[in-house]
Design goal:
By secondary structure, this protein is α/β, with parallel strands linked by helices. The protein contains nine helices and eleven strands.
């Protein structure tokens, strides 16, 4: 089955209808504009026969409204399969970031590419209207698969600093910096095309991420248990998972999940520490996991206690 790619284009936004009318009055008509070939126009050709590209025309891109785009994108979602790759350029990038931060996505996402995506309007002369991100992008982080942030230092439209804001909100994302891509309106985009081709086919590969200081404990066999909250990967006994160093973002091994049990975090016992790192106190344990999960933790929070066996 072909790998699905969804591309969401950019657009213009205004704070009021009068501002939009002023834009129309002052905008010069150019009969040649729109005839230029862009990388998005040849995306399917560049990717090849193993891919299917869905590129919906979003409503009124010259005066875009998030609510209208959401209604239209909701109609696209039922046609998508597990393992889909989402690509958003400019306004299309912040649209995907907002949509996936505020809604549960019914399919497994392999990867998301945010290309020259605005984060907010603080350092820009342009309005984002109702394309405003929520305070937390945690839901996007949990369900977005592998997240890529592409930005060019010479972007004349979206401030380069916005890419840093995304990285702060999405610390696991992979950022690629260019020096001369502008607002990514070039005819070809081989760097992104090659990256998309490397995304595994089918459903997103399940992974477990560990802080760097835990990696030696896993490789030595001392750590064979992990505790997971808010499982968005649907981890199950028998799953094969890649083990990721959360700091370097490199794969350091693979493992098979051999046992899983669930209980409230407040009912953790000494037995549950077998194969798991210890803490000096209960307070340290809670503070550690609050850091991992952004403070969302109580004694009633369900924890998955997962035993795994490192592949030889």
């Amino acid at each position: 089955m072909k790998k699905q790619i969804v591309f969401i284009h950019g657009g213009e936004t205004f704070d009021s209808h009068e501002a939009y009318l002023d834009f129309l009055r002052n905008c010069e008509f150019n009969p040649e504009k729109g005839k230029e070939k862009r990388w998005k126009d040849s995306l399917l050709e560049s990717l090849g026969d193993d891919f299917e590209v869905i590129a919906p025309t979003m409503p009124c891109k010259f005066n875009a409204k998030y609510k209208e785009w959401k209604i239209w994108f909701d109609k696209v979602v039922p046609f998508l399969r597990d393992g889909v790759v989402l690509i958003g350029h400019s306004l299309g990038g912040i649209f995907l970031a907002k949509y996936l931060s505020e809604n549960d996505f019914p399919k497994k996402i392999s990867a998301i590419y945010l290309i020259a995506a605005p984060y907010d309007a603080e350092d820009s002369e342009y309005s984002l209207a109702d394309f405003t991100l929520p305070k937390s992008l945690e839901k996007l982080r949990r369900q977005g698969g592998k997240i890529f942030i592409y930005h060019s230092e010479d972007d004349p439209v979206v401030p380069f600093w916005d890419s840093e804001k995304y990285l702060r909100a999405l610390p696991d994302a992979e950022k690629t910096i260019f020096k001369d891509k502008g607002h990514f309106l070039q005819e070809e985009f081989p760097e992104m095309v090659e990256s998309v081709k490397k995304i595994p086919s089918g459903s997103a590969q399940k992974t477990l991420k560990f802080k760097e200081h835990l990696v030696p404990l896993i490789l030595s066999g001392e750590k064979t248990v992990t505790w997971r909250l808010f499982d968005d990967k649907d981890l199950r006994v028998g799953d094969k998972v890649n083990l990721i160093n959360a700091d370097s973002r490199e794969i350091f091994g693979s493992a098979k999940l051999t046992e899983i049990k669930e209980k409230p975090f407040g009912e953790i016992t000494d037995e549950d520490f077998d194969g798991h790192e210890k803490f000096e106190s209960e307070k340290e344990m809670y503070e550690t996991y609050k850091k991992y999960y952004g403070g969302k933790l109580s004694k009633d929070t369900t924890v998955k206690i997962i035993k795994f066996k490192l592949d030889e």
